[in-house]
Amino acid sequence: MNPLSGLGSPEVSLVAHTIQLALAPVFLLAGIGAFLNVCVGRLARVVDRARFVERALPATTGAEHARLIAEIHILDRRISVINAAVLMTVIAAVLTCVVVILLFLSNLIDAKFGTVIALLFIASMASMAVGFAIFIVETRLGSRSVHIRNEILYHEAEDETRPH
């Protein structure tokens, strides 16, 4: 016995309509994927910098050591913040996938999932909004932590014509 025999055969027009309804969430998934790509790219750069600082740290002393310790703390915080943004974005993606699945199921088995679908979509948007907000925090952390030291900014090359 076929377990799907009780489902009947939906009209092609109903399936086509369901696909049309599912297109918006599917495009949303593409946007979420692009945003995740940006987050993961930033995460990779921060992790690379943290590894560089970790290797350089044992060879430093004094002010340079203190500067690298402060930087490694900021990098650690940025890693945590980016991971939180990724988590919220992945949750939004999963919820969006569930929305698409329920759209098809509701039409296939003629179930009334409208309220559940709406609530899941709202939850997906809320999760995405939180992911974006967390991402803003990370970009602010990153831009505040990138400072060019005064000794570099105001460094003047020695004049080669002057005697030493």
N→C terminal distance: 97 Å
Q: Give the total of beta strands.
A: 0
Q: Report helical residue fraction.
A: over 70%
The tally of domains stands at 1
Major sheet characteristics:
none
Tell me the series of helices and strands, N- to C-terminal. HHHH
**Number of helical elements:** 4
Q: Can you tell me the residue ranges where pLDDT is under 50 for at least 5 consecutive residues?
A: none
Specify the structural class.
mainly alpha
Shape, principal axes of CA atoms: rod-shaped
Radius of gyration: 26 Å
Mean pLDDT, rounded to whole units? Answer: 87
Strand content bin: under 5%
Describe the structure concisely.
With 164 residues, this protein is mostly helical.
What does this structure look like?
The chain has helices spanning 12-56, 62-108, 114-145, 150-153. The chain is mainly alpha-helical and 164 residues long. It has one domain (18-146). α1 (12-56) packs antiparallel against α2 (62-108) and α2 (62-108) packs antiparallel against α3. It is rod-shaped, with a radius of gyration of 26 Å. The model has no long low-confidence stretch (mean pLDDT 87).
